[in-house]
Amino acid sequence: MQLERGRMSRVDFYSALSEHYDEIFPLKGPQKTFLHDFLKQESLTSVLDIGCGTGTFALEISQTGVRVHGVDLSDEMVQISKEKAQEIGSAATFSLADMRDLSGINDKFDGVFCLGNTLAHVSGDIELKEVLTQFGEKGTHLLLQTVNYDRILAKLVKELPVIKTQHLIFYRYYTHRVDGLLDFAMKIEFPDTKQVVSGTNLLLPIKCASLKEALLEAGWEVSGQWGNFDKDAWTVDSPATIIAAKRIIG
Description:
The strands form 2 sheets. Strands 3-2-1-4-5-11-10 form a 7-stranded mixed β-sheet, with helices on both faces. It is globular and about 55 Å long. Helix content is 31%, strand content 31%. The chain is an alpha/beta fold.
């Protein structure tokens, strides 16, 4: 257990979170239905899951017979993913990789997924375009999900809903910086032991229009947009920004 400390690097931030990730973010019905529907609609037989976390989405879709490889920057999360795959007999594979450099992944895939707000960890608009271009080198269909930063910025949201489970309380805070970036702080409290895990991460709040523009510049054509995994239409007040895109050929 890591005790409370100051500012963490991105790797340390998610290493601290990995042990409790599945308890805080369990797979929900709408997510499951959305992913299965998307796989069927686009006839995907292989998926590269970037920022796979503890493998929740990758393991779920692998049960359909889809070939899945998940990558994450956190070694702890990759190890947890591998252990879970072994436990359930999944053929999904996992490895350590940064979305900024996918050169070590030689395989091609039908689909590239980048979910769970992973994309917001790019350093700026230039790197965003570079990352989206790399995604196009790995697959022809893309599914992205981030927090709806249009809402976060317009309403100057400073705190996301608190998540309480049987064993912990998870807090998330935003500090709006003058340079346009966000400091994202997390804190996990364990009431029984009085222990705390905390850290701060730097995020790029990617607005929907900016993301769609970057996709087009990187060779993608947007084919779908939703505000949550229930497939509700996206609005400025939606909790999430979910975008599907297809690589422009020619």
